[in-house]
């Protein structure tokens, strides 16, 4: 999602309150339609698998892990499940969840917006040892990302881990073409992202970056950032 590598479609809303109240039905419908093409466009997820491996090495077998924006369940829910973890995957797309349940039948999957995972929501506070959020928060307006990170922090037990993946881009809630559909995305530059994560109550233990060229010509090359974090 290099800002030099794609042309935004339309303009972002100027009112943060309007952005926060956006109906994300269109986002879910886009990913319902994209389906397996997502994994075909992004076949090699080195950074994602490496970050998941870091968390697995830190966790005891049987630990509860939350996979936010789980998509098809590949590779993350599958990776954690194969390592003996109890996985709960969350996604807004019913189509993606159907694929995830097929790919990782041992895991539990829940249809929900990340913004709904607040106190009093469907998941209990402090009930997870780790969370993975790979390219999930970029689907939110910037105005919502700090709150989503705080909600994830609250779902983690003290000292719980967060493996976070984002695309480096200085954009806020802009529409872009993606695999034949239009989605809205946000992003930060590296230092900004780190500050947002730390302000939400996480210690950033390690940062990794990868230049990624998707297999599909419908998606431009992008700089992926992975933060290895612990609940402070």
UniProtKB/TrEMBL annotation:
Region (Disordered): 1-26
Keyword terms of this UniProt record: Methyltransferase, Transferase
Name of this protein: Putative methyltransferase
One MF term in the entry's GO annotations: methyltransferase activity
Classification of source organism: Bacteria, Bacillati, Actinomycetota, Actinomycetes, Kitasatosporales
Pfam families in the cross-refs: Methyltransf_25
Occurrences of domain Methyltransferase (ranges): 65-160
Organism the protein comes from: Actinacidiphila reveromycinica
Family annotation (SUPFAM superfamilies): S-adenosyl-L-methionine-dependent methyltransferases
BP terms from Gene Ontology: antibiotic biosynthetic process; methylation
